[in-house]
Specification:
139 residues, alpha+beta, 2 domains, two-stranded antiparallel sheet, 8 strands, 22% helix
């Protein structure tokens, strides 16, 4: 096991047996060793802005963040990321749905407002999962 690390003004100094709590990094967890050095370098405001949840230990990058974010599909209520620039600011699922409904790429791009999403299940990892009834009719 490596020695526990503490910071000094000039250099990193090993301090045996030192453990500290950095609740903004990992809630209810004692950190030791190089983890202390890393935790000290992470500002609470940055972690909050980036979407870090220290209790759940999950990073939820906010879509609207200027550096870490992404462009969302322009269909109301769709949480998916836009795919490229040639399909009118839509995700693949919404573009495919509107194409199957008979809209051309030019109509999709020119439309000020697009048909809303059908009832669907939202999967936070992959985006919308369209529900289909028997016979292939979207719900």
């Amino acid at each position: 096991m490596s020695a526990v690390i503490a910071l000094s003004a000039r250099r990193v100094v090993p301090v045996a047996g030192l453990t500290l709590v950095f609740s903004h990094v990992l809630d209810a967890t004692m950190l030791a060793g190089p983890a202390i050095t890393l935790a000290r370098a992470l500002e609470p405001a940055f972690l909050t802005e980036a979407g870090w949840d220290p209790g759940m230990r999950v990073l939820w990058l906010p879509a609207q963040h200027p550096l870490l974010g992404r462009t969302l599909c322009r269909v109301d209520g769709c949480p998916s990321t836009v795919h490229g620039t040639k399909i009118g600011g839509l995700c693949w699922q919404c573009f495919s749905r509107l194409s199957r409904a008979g809209m051309s790429i030019d109509e999709i791009v020119a439309a000020k407002q697009l048909p809303p999403l059908p009832n669907l299940n939202l999967n936070p990892w992959t985006g919308p999962v369209h529900c289909v009834q028997k016979g292939g009719v979207e719900m």
